[in-house]
Amino acid sequence: MVKRALISVSDKTGIVDFAKELQGMGVEIISTGGTYKTLNDAGIKVINISDITGFPECLDGRVKTLHPKVHGGLLAMRSNPDHMKQIAELGIEPIDMVIINLYPFKQTILKENVELHDAIENIDIGGPTMLRAAAKNYQDVSVIVDPSDYIKVIEELKSSKDVSLKTKFKLAYKVFEHTCHYDTLIAKYLREKIGEDNFPETMTLTFEKVQDMRYGENPHQKAVFYKEVGANKGCITSAKQLHGKELSYNNINDANGALELLKEFSEPTVVAVKHANPCGVASSDDIYDAYVKAYEADPVSIFGGIIAANREIDIKTAEEINKIFVEIIIAPSFTDEAMAVLSKKKNIRIMQLENIGAPVPEGSYDMKKVAGGLLVQNVNRECVNKEEIKFVTEKRPDEKQIEELLFAMKVVKHTKSNGIVVAKGKQTLGVGPGQTNRIMAAKIAIEYGGERTKGAVLASDAFFPFPDCVEAAAAAGIKAIIQPGGSMNDQASIDECNKHGIAMIFTGMRHFKH
Ligand SMILES: NC(=O)c1ncn([C@@H]2O[C@H](COP(=O)(O)O)[C@@H](O)[C@H]2O)c1NC=O
């Protein structure tokens, strides 16, 4: 039986109707300042919390409900005669239901230019304390933290005069989920305020559900898509779907890979991705030309792929894209004419992402789940270390070749290791991804390039342990190479370059990606 309920809510949506229903069932209602006013103004009979505690709310609301008269009433076990005797002697009356939602910490920190003191004042203390007390004593107390549960609770009360133990247990579980999410956001916010790489002793992460997925990587795997709170600028989680069926698990993963690579470029660029590896990447003066070059880079692999562009898609580009089947096109915007063309196809997903080039914020984590644990590192935000660049061969690359080499290095950075990329004219010609030895990656990239590799450049994500990749490059007519350097055997590759008149530069920065 619910005889007394304590209501203390920041989000007052639906609270008047809920309280009216409780009152109609003869439940006595206690409330804190603002909630008291809202209910009282709506004609509901409410007892002010101060009349229960015998204390005024004080310290700007920092202390309202933190009192044994409240917590004794919540925590006393009704089945324990000692507890009941003690509270009777202390003049504490049981509280059977609490309806609480917390100070809007999340909404506060999501505001632009929020001051630390503002965030701090929005850390709720009394609310979580009551929520946790009530949830611990769920057998005797119903605890409602989510306004979407109001209707269900009222229905149960109407039909069986009480809330079932099963419902009370679920509501209690929800409380700990909620307070954990709330506290994790606080910890994350404060950790980011410290402003340096911070790898805490315990890693508590929190995400919010975006949607259920039809299935995971494979149809027999269940999957859900979650997003981080805040920090979603330029991320796949902020993309707006303008057309097409729901994104799949693999679509999201591939689109994420395409966006990460696209962020390396400021000039008009198109990235095509298959199975999380780039298959065609090109930069040009305009997006149409960049698309044509990305398509021609590898017209076979792009089929059924993900295309990401960093400029508006116009009708000319849309008509070109429409000639093949692609799963997703993602861009900052689409002209109306382009939308009309692209949306003729039922199966293409059209995604709009403003701020598509927004960099990953400094201090962001990159994580990989391993069985029984989690690997955490900071995001790989660099591409080459300009101070570390060394021209190691007799032949020096010219300015144009340096640009070409840097283009290829950006692409190989986002290719699964071992990876090799061959490129010319800011267009990939061959991508050799994810091989267990480097020469195989080189052979694949060169084979994709075919005749076009003559005069092209080659990038490697890590150093050459042997001169075999240079030999293969020379045979394919490659004129310049970029790689991190740092192998004990660097000299063998340098000698091989010198033998064939190839220019090679070392960047001092490796880009493994697994
Ligand atoms: N300090 C306390 O004793 C306390 N008790 C309840 N609160 C919070 O005060 C809010 C409601 O305040 P009001 O009814 O004055 O609008 C709720 O979000 C509730 O979680 C408190 N505030 C913050 O800690």
From TrEMBL:
Q: Which UniProt keywords apply?
A: Hydrolase, Multifunctional enzyme, Purine biosynthesis, Transferase
Q: What would be one Gene Ontology cellular-component term for the protein?
A: cytosol
Q: Which residues form the MGS-like domain?
A: 1-145
- Some GO term, biological process aspect, for this entry: which one? 'de novo' IMP biosynthetic process
Show the CDD domains listed in the entry: IMPCH
Q: What is its EC number?
A: 2.1.2.3, 3.5.4.10
Out of the domains of life, which is the source? Answer: Bacteria
Q: Which GO terms describe its molecular function?
A: IMP cyclohydrolase activity; phosphoribosylaminoimidazolecarboxamide formyltransferase activity
Q: Which pathway does UniProt place it in?
A: Purine metabolism; IMP biosynthesis via de novo pathway; IMP from 5-formamido-1-(5-phospho-D-ribosyl)imidazole-4-carboxamide: step 1/1; Purine metabolism; IMP biosynthesis via de novo pathway; 5-formamido-1-(5-phospho-D-ribosyl)imidazole-4-carboxamide from 5-amino-1-(5-phospho-D-ribosyl)imidazole-4-carboxamide (10-formyl THF route): step 1/1
Which reaction equation describes what this protein catalyses? IMP + H2O = 5-formamido-1-(5-phospho-D-ribosyl)imidazole-4-carboxamide; (6R)-10-formyltetrahydrofolate + 5-amino-1-(5-phospho-beta-D-ribosyl)imidazole-4-carboxamide = 5-formamido-1-(5-phospho-D-ribosyl)imidazole-4-carboxamide + (6S)-5,6,7,8-tetrahydrofolate
Query: InterPro entries per the record?
Result: AICAR_Tfase_dup_dom_sf (IPR024051), Cytidine_deaminase-like (IPR016193), MGS-like_dom (IPR011607), MGS-like_dom_sf (IPR036914), PurH-like (IPR002695)
- Indicate yes or no for the key word Transferase: yes
Family label? Belongs to the PurH family.
What free text does the record give on domains? The IMP cyclohydrolase activity resides in the N-terminal region.
Protein name, entry field: Bifunctional purine biosynthesis protein PurH
According to its UniProt entry, this protein's organism is: Pseudobacteroides cellulosolvens ATCC 35603 = DSM 2933
Q: Which gene encodes it?
A: purH
